[in-house]
Amino acid sequence: MTTFLGLPPVTAPRGVGHLRGSVPFPRAARGAVGDAQLRSNLAHATTSIRAKRAAVVTEVADWEQLRRAGAAIKAATMASLDEHLTALEDAVTARGGTVHWARDANEANRIVTRLVQATGERDVVKVKSMATQEIGLNEALAEVGIRAHETDLAELIVQLADDRPSHILVPAIHRNRAEIRDLFRHRMPGVDPDLTDEPAALAAAARSYLRERFLSTRVAIRGANFAVAETGTCLVVESEGNGRMCLTLPDTLVCVMGIEKVLPRWSDLEVMLQLLPRSSTGERMNPYTSAWTGVTPGDGPQAFHLVLLDNGRTAALADPVGRDALHCIKCSACLNVCPVYARTGGHAYGSVYPGPIGAVLSPLLTGVQDNASLPFASTLCGACYDVCPVLIDIPSILVDLRRRHVDETVTTVPSAERVALATAAWAMRDAGRWRRAGRTGRVGRLLARGRGRIRTLPPPLSGWTASRDVPAPPTETFRDWWARTHE
Ligand code: SF4
User: Fold this and answer.
1) Cis amide leading into 363 (omega within 30)
2) Sequence-ordered alpha helix ranges (H) in 224-368
3) Max alpha carbon distance in the chain (Å)?
């Protein structure tokens, strides 16, 4: 397969889909951190979304109460998730839809593939959906000769480039306008060879390309932002109208949704639809909010299938600390404020869920050891917690995942880090030992050679000085200073 801009084609791991990173984060991040164009694209995009969010959040007087209400709705829903899901199944079935349960990515892909094959169609239109990216659905459909056409503009850019999304909400955040123009010229059938990089021109090119797909494709696949158990209604919010087209024009609609997206009552949307658009796109309301309930004879798709996806979610639900990550409404506000994400972009995380929420959600869904480096991809600054509309304490979950990773990797050969921490703990347990340890600062000052910082240390401590300096110890310890000035 040819690649665009040197990016490798996407391949789908089995079982968990695209949740598992094949390369540890520090290694994957190295190239991204050295890419000045990528950093500039990311800085521009995250800064402007952050500013928009801050402006629309500030104008809501009861924003903090809304956040607490959102967190409470999610916590109460998770406490009886099984009941809400069966209520949702009953309501969808009563309105003429069909509900399918998928334990993992493979099962979900098999179900959707079978449903599309039953229609006899070879093409489907797709609306941006994290759940279908998570399971690697496009690749699974391609294996049986079914073409999935992404209709969200950013997803279309990613698909045309054989690229991977790098942001939950803005999948092509790593691309600038000139790159997109070049991509359209090379990869979009029928595009004007003199296409400019003006946003309106790019949007017009995409619109005319997509119009053909909307009018000729009989099957649509999409996710859902929420599903209401009491009415059996699925709901999506979007900005481009492509979702509305896919919900109304095709004959068959397949919705793939993580089981955590269910809400018990219609009235819960009152809270969620205030929190989500402000936190995600920085808008008071999304341009398109579409809700559909089962099948309505003579109006819209006449076959509706809802695939409820587990893929590690029930395991995460059983986790006393990590289960709060399932409250996530995928607004991506935490990505836009994260200093690590802003420098590495989403690809370094390996998993389809990048940024702070990806660093907790991916290991929880796959098991900590399958995404072991992700909980360490954070400065623990807490900015993600500050902006999260449903109050997910991401830093605390990260720390717990780190502890679990360390506990699970105990070996008979102690690492340099373990030896250093064990030595420090031993010294701190005894006042005399700690006093004597303080005096070793003299050695550090010698290594600093009067520069105020130590640039290199011998192994195993060289791992630290390979990427940062160590401040030279002061000439006087705190104890010596105290004795000199107070005794
Ligand atoms: S963790 Fe919170 S801030 Fe991050 S995407 Fe989820 S809901 Fe949004």
Assistant:
1) no
2) 242-248, 268-280, 313-317, 333-337, 339-344, 355-366
3) 91
**Beta-bridge partners for 255:** 222, 306
With residue 137 as reference, give the H or E element that holds it. helix 137-143
Is residue 360 within 8 Å of residue 319, measured between CB atoms?
no
Helix or strand run (H / E) with residue 76? helix 63-79
SS3 state at 168: coil
3-state secondary structure of 148: strand
d(CA 306, CA 112): 10
Closest CA to 16 of 158, 131, 128, 111: 131
In the reported structure, the alpha carbon of residue 226 is separated from the centroid of ligand 1 by a whole-number distance in angstroms of: 15
Cα(116) to centroid of ligand 1, in Å? 32
Ligand 1 centroid to 168 CA: how many Å? 10
Q: What is the pLDDT of residues 23-51, one digit of tens each?
A: 889 888 988 888 888 888 888 889 999 99
Closest C-alpha among 223, 178, 219 to residue 201: 178
* Residue with CA closest to ligand 1 atom 2: 388
CA distance 220 to 301: 9
Percentage of the chain exceeding pLDDT 90: 65
Contact by Cβ (8 Å): 70, 271: yes
The C-alpha atoms of residue 347 and residue 7 are separated, in whole angstroms, by 11
Name the token pair of 159.
Answer: 């698909």
In whole angstroms, what is the distance from residue 223 CA to residue 150 CA? Answer: 13
The C-alpha atoms of residue 396 and residue 348 are separated, in whole angstroms, by 22
Query: What is the Cα–Cα distance from 145 to 141, expressed in whole angstroms?
Result: 6
**Terminal Cα-to-Cα distance of the chain (whole angstroms):** 77
Run of H or E including 233: strand 233-238
445-482 pLDDT per residue, tens: 777 777 888 888 877 778 778 878 888 888 888 888 99
279, 389 in Cβ contact below 8 A? yes
> Which ligand 1 atom sits nearest the alpha carbon of residue 325?
1
